[in-house]
Specification:
Length: 215
């Protein structure tokens, strides 16, 4: 918003509940190798989002970026702040993020739980990113996102490329105009993934290795 609301409202943000199979995905945007799809979700005014792309990175490099919460504001669309509030392990963290929303709508914030798992046979990495309620007190003037579930599925293609499928469905809470919902649904994911491609090129992630992710 994962980083995920934040890779999240945006992408990020979230009650990222993954939409059911009964509705087909509709291609919303296809630029720079990044495809953004949307589809209707029963009993929700918010469309689900799916992003598909292939990036020049190893699974460890991509996971390192996604779990590097302090740099979230460098690439995740409209992120104002992000910080870890609890670290269970290197692959299991809780983080708080505030999302900048254009005036006159109030900013949103959320706590997301990011947990990384990897299939030992296929090497496919999954990052689940549900939003957690009541872990941090609500703040005046900021609307708390309380319902959200998101997921990254990262599949190795070869030694230097990964295929990504990111799914998100969120309830931003409060009163949100249709134009703002549409902006985040279409523009947010595209801008975040463009930023992700640039973030992966930074020296900090060039030779990264993670004990819990096998390339």
């Amino acid at each position: 918003m994962y980083r995920i609301l934040t890779i999240a409202f945006l992408l990020f943000a979230a009650k990222f509940a993954i939409a059911g199979p009964e509705q087909p995905w509709s291609l919303s945007s296809d630029k720079e190798g990044i495809k953004v799809y949307t589809r209707h979700v029963a009993d929700s005014k918010i469309k689900a989002i799916k992003v598909e792309c292939t990036l020049n990175a190893t699974p460890a490099q991509l996971v390192a970026v996604l779990m590097d919460i302090k740099t979230c504001g460098e690439w995740v669309y409209h992120t104002k702040s992000a910080s870890i509030i609890k670290q269970v392990s290197p692959s299991d963290i809780y983080y708080y993020s505030e999302v900048n929303i254009p005036w006159p709508v109030h900013n949103r914030d959320f706590v997301a739980h990011l947990k990384v798992t990897q299939d030992p046979k296929t090497k496919v990495v999954t990052i689940d990113a549900p939003v957690i309620s009541n872990m941090v007190p609500a703040k005046d003037g900021i609307v708390r996102v309380e319902n959200s579930t998101g997921r990254w599925v990262i599949t190795p293609v070869d030694s230097s490329h990964v295929s990504i499928v990111y799914t998100l469905h969120l309830d931003p809470g409060g009163s949100v105009p249709a134009w703002l919902i549409n902006m985040f649904a279409a523009q947010g994911p595209m801008e975040s993934f463009k930023g992700l491609k640039k973030q992966l090129q930074k020296p900090a992630y060039k030779d990264v290795k993670l004990a819990y992710v096998q390339d």
